Amino acid sequence: MKLIKLGMPVFLVLLSIVFLVGTYNLPKAKLGNPDAPLYFPMGVSVLLLVFSIIYLVQELRRANETNEQIAEMLSGRTPLLIGATIALGIGYALIFELLGFLFSTLLFLGALLFVVNGRKKWVANIIVTVVFSFASWYAFSELLGVSLP
Q1: Are residues 109 and 55 part of one domain?
Q2: pLDDT of amino acid 37
Q3: In the chain, what are the helix, strand and coil shares in percent, each to the nearest 5?
Q4: pLDDT value of position 113
């Protein structure tokens, strides 16, 4: 249980360090202050690092407490939903270029809704899948003029 509670703050500390180091690889400005493009990403990275360290210290202080919410989250159907969502997301990324936005979104969203809602709500699953997929395709492709694969 301790590993689960400390995993996210440790990950955030490491991520903020990676971002902070990455800001030094940004190109310098040609006009004005050459370091100006570094200020915002560096500030965000420093804030993320500070808040992540605070989060880590808080979790270390509470490391011996049992967290019923985590135990409840790891029981029942939740791990299946998390695993299925990750697997479907990876599958969506793999078929996106091959099938294009519309068909891959139809497959991904339809499968995800059937995993979450089950077969009993098949009519609602299909309606939401078709309406959302076509509406988002129309909004991006036709209204905004974004070229979709």
Answers
A1: no
A2: 82
A3: 80, 0, 20
A4: 93
